[in-house]
Structures are given as C-alpha cells and as structure tokens.
Amino acid sequence: MSDQPGPPSSTSLAQCVVLDGIAGSPGYAIGRTVVVDTRRQGGARRHIPKHAADDEVDRFTRAVEFAARELREVEERTRERATRLESSILAAYLLMVEDETLRDEVERRIRIDHLCAEWALSATVEEMASQLRSGGDPYLAERSHDFEFVGDRILGALSGRASILALPGDKAPCVIVAHDLSPTETVGLTRDRVLGIVTEVGTRTSHTAILARALEIPAVVGVAGLLGRVGDGDVVAVDGVHGRIVVNPFAELMAEHEGRSQRFQAAVLARQKLRDRPIITRCGVPIELRANIELPSEAEVALSQGARGIGLYRTEFLYVDRSSPPTEDEHYETYRRVIEAVMPLPVTLRTFDIGGDKFVSSLQLPIDMNPALGLRAVRLGLARPELLLTQLRAMIRASAHGPLRVMVPMIASIGELRAVRALFERARQEVDAAGHARAPHIPLGMMVEVPSAAIMAHEFAREAEFMSIGTNDLVQYALAVDRSSPELAYLASFFDPAILRLIAGVVRAGADYQRPVTLCGAMASDQLASVLLLGLGLRELSMEASAIPAIREAIAEVTLAEAADVSREAAALVTASEVERCLLDRFAERLDID
Ligand code: PEP
Ligand code: MG
User: Fold this and answer.
1) 294: Cβ below 6 Å to ligand 1?
2) Which of 472, 494, 517 best tests ligand 1's pocket when mutated (most atoms within 8 Å of CB)?
3) Segments in 135-178 forming alpha helices (H)
4) Which residue of 155, 157, 192, 312 has the fewest C-beta atoms within 10 A of its own C-beta?
5) Which residue segments constitute the domains of the chain, with CATH numbers given?
6) Is 66 helix (H, G, I), strand (E, B) or coil?
7) Ligand 1 mean position to 468 CA, how many Å?
8) How far are the Cα atoms of 17, 156, 178, 198, 401 from residue 33, in angstroms, in the given order?
9) Residue tagged active-site, from 16, 116, 520, 582
10) Tell me: the pLDDT tens digits for 512-539?
11) pTM for the full model?
C-alpha cells in the first residue's frame, strides 16, 4: 500500500491516496463511493447512563423508521419485476421491522438494563431468533433468519451506514466500498447502478470477484485497511486491470485513469468484433471456449463474447436472496431460459454448490469450524436429498429444450458419485412418471476440485461421463489456502507444479477412458495459463465470458507443438514462479503481456 499525497485538486481538498489490492474484475470506473459495511458485528456494546435512556430510545425509534422507509423504497422500486414470493418477503420484513414485541423488548433493555441501542437490539434479535429456532417448527425456524436480516437493517441504520438494499435507485451510480459482499448482496447489483466494487477481503477466485466479472463491473478486492481509508462520498478511481484504487485522485491522475479506461474500452470492442470467427490454434486446431455464468441473463452476454455454449452454470445463485429454496418449476423455467438462449450450443448445469463461501441463510446450514471443509455442495445435496432431487428433476425436464449436461461439484469419493447417480436415476423416473418430456440421455459428470478426486482420476473417469477441473477449489484444497485470503494469495497459484501434476493426471485419465475433460476455474481465463493447458492436453476451457476474447487471441498465437513443449519444460520446474517465468520468457512478447 502506498500513500501518495497529491496537490489539492480543484474538486476536492481531501487527501489523495493510492491503495493496492487484487484485480478482481477488469475495467475502469470512477465515481463517488457508497460505503456498505455488511459485517455482522452486533454493533457497539456499551452501558449508558440512566439519564441518556430517552435519547437512546429515540435513536432506536428513528433507526426503525429509517429501516422501514428503506424497505418500502425497495418494495416500490422492485414492484414491477418482483415475483409474488419476493413481494411477500418484503412485506413480511416490513411487519418485522415494526414489530411491537421487538420494540418493547429493546426499549426495556435500554431503560432497565442500561444498554446502548445497538446492544439492546442485537441481544433482543439473538434471543427472539434462537426461540424461533428451538421451537422445532421448521417454518418458524426459517423466520429466525428473517429476524436477523431485519435486525441487521436496523443496526445498519443505527450506525448510519448504507446497506445494499438502500442503494438509491434514482440517484447517480456509485462505487461500492465494503468489507466483503455476500452472494445475496452482489446478486442484486446491476451495472447501471454500480460503477465499480472495492472490497477489503477477497481474491480473484472469491465469489465477489467472480460475480463482478460476470456482471462486467470493474472490481478491486483484497484492499487491506480499505474501510479505514475510504469514506462515504469520496471520489474513487477503480482500476480493475491492475488491482489498484485511487481515493480522491487529483487532476493528472484522473486524466491518466480516463486515458486507460478509453484504451481498455477500445480493446474490448475490437475483440468483440472477432466473436463469430472460429477459435483455433496457430496450427489450425479448433479449441472450445465456453462461458461460466452465475445468472441466466448472462447467457446472452456470453454469446456476445464468442462463447461456444455454457461450460459452467453456477446454479447456487438461484438460492440466494430468498427465504425458501426455489421450486422445481422455478428451477426448470430458469434452466430452460438459459438453454433456449444459447441453442444449439451446449449447456453444463452444475448442481448447487452451497456452503463454504457461498452461504445461503434460508437453508440453515450448521456452522462449521472450517466452512470450506464442511457441509458444502454435493455433501449438502446428499444430506438433504429432497433439495437435490428437486433440482435434478428440473434439470432433467430442461433437457427437452436443448443439449444439456449435469455436473456435480466437490465430489471427494466414488461413493458420493454413485449416490448422486442413484438420485439422478430416481429423479429421471419421477420425471417420466409425471409425463414430462426429456432428452433420451443426459450426461452426468463431476467437477474435479478436491485433491482426492484428482489423485483417483482414473477410477472416477470410469464412472463419471465427463470431468471438469475446478482449479479455484483445487488450489484451495491442494495447497491448503483459503481462497478468499489476500494474505495468502501469493501461495494460491494455479502455476504451482503440484496443481499442474494433478491436472495432467486428470487429462490422462480422461483420455484413457475417452471421457471429455474440461477446465472451468479462473486458470482458464489467464492467457499464459491457457497456453500451458493446451500443452497439457486440454481442448476445452470454460471461463467468465469477458475473458474469452483475450484467450482466443492467446490460442491463435501458439501451435500445439509449442504448447506441449512449454508444458514439458514446466513439468521439470519446482516452483510456481519458475513456471510463470518460463511461460513469460517464451510468450510474453507474443501475447503482449507486460
Ligand atoms: C472452481 O472451484 O474452480 C470452480 C469453477 O467452482 P467455484 O469457483 O464455483 O467454486
Ligand atoms: Mg469450486
């Protein structure tokens, strides 16, 4: 992090500061910030003198009014496009915000226990939520999360910080500054309201970054000390290409930023013009580049970038921002929309990967000590088979509308794969019994993202119909590095020789059993890495749509013989930086990488 005090600009007397982070989503943005502190801290905890009780109760009442107003505004703003379910959730939140029991109890704690409003509120919400949870009624237990959500809204109002819900729909678009954003918060963002995103934690493969790239919003993540340096209403220039922000830039820096932004836009447009050209290596071999998507609306964006279908649809985003899981029909309609948008190109639907850093409150997941090692993805699906069956039935029905494959995340043992296959078979029978149409055969494959699956790749290849290597998690688990830790980002390299060996083993297993193998982690969207992957034998990659034009260019620059040659050389190296250096030495100039 480097401070760079500049001369006062004509627009602001605030200090100009440059902060370094990690490039989360490419692009440039400049705008005023809205600071969103979504950390559930429970707020301040202090005792208040007796005579301050009236003021404290007033403060609480004003916060409740603010939170209620905020919810009403959201209701109005989303009235047109909200589903009936979403509207009823908002209405329920409103009732809870204004709930008298909640108010009376908070007031009692302020007046009798002399707690400050934040403390009184969080203690009350905690108690009410735990009563709802312990009653044994699943419906009421579900409501406990709603209570917590509503409590957070009031706490946010007490601290004077904006929440994502409160982002003004009718005001100028802004740069969001936050500690982190959960899928629930990011999913509601749109490019017309949000110019850029800057977060204190996160890495290139954390979900905030993935979603920002999907939405094509420039983002810098992992900016240490961000919330201590940036305030509401500061002007921030976001450089999502180099992973840097400038707070309150002075005129020269603004102009420099503007120039880079224009060059970036021109390059993006030039690349998009190539979208319909075949994707081939310099020696003429076709390579399939598909897109990773999180939201159905991205399917069209993917095509506009030249994607040859969807290689990974992360369906877990369907589960966030709602108080109950989607119904079979909702799943089906969503998948159908994606399939029809890209027809006749293929779509790979991944069953939900909930848990880990993709937390969905409505499912009441247990709190694991190590969430990434806990009840996540297929483990959750097998523990709650009714959830997985609903999704599988919908996927099977959607197969009637175009080429479709189903992929299972986080498979760690053959037993899990077999158990999913049995559920898949049951779902197929139920779809048939209900008289729905479907494709005669739907390939069922797996992600290889847990080291055990890569080590046993041959055994898995015998049973899975295709395999897709998820390097984001493979790196996390093989190198024991939390994927959202900026401090450990230096260790979490997909160029690590251990990762290259695991990938090579999976590719060999696929070839031995004639199973298609693809790779869908962030490694696929790195130009140098893409060359290495061709050399390792991969002919299909899936990545965020915006990376496709650059990867197409890299592929067009190299022959398979060159790629194989560099991957052989890399195989003899022992550190990630040696591998990267070797690739840079050979290809940096040709690929125009500095
Ligand atoms: C991966 O782990 O590489 C992957 C593609 O899945 P996700 O990023 O959704 O965990
Ligand atoms: Mg993964």
Assistant:
1) no
2) 472
3) 138-159
4) 192
5) 10-37+165-271 (3.50.30.10), 50-159 (1.10.274.10), 276-591 (3.20.20.60)
6) helix
7) 10
8) 14, 17, 10, 9, 44
9) 520
10) 999 999 999 999 999 999 999 999 999 9
11) 0.70
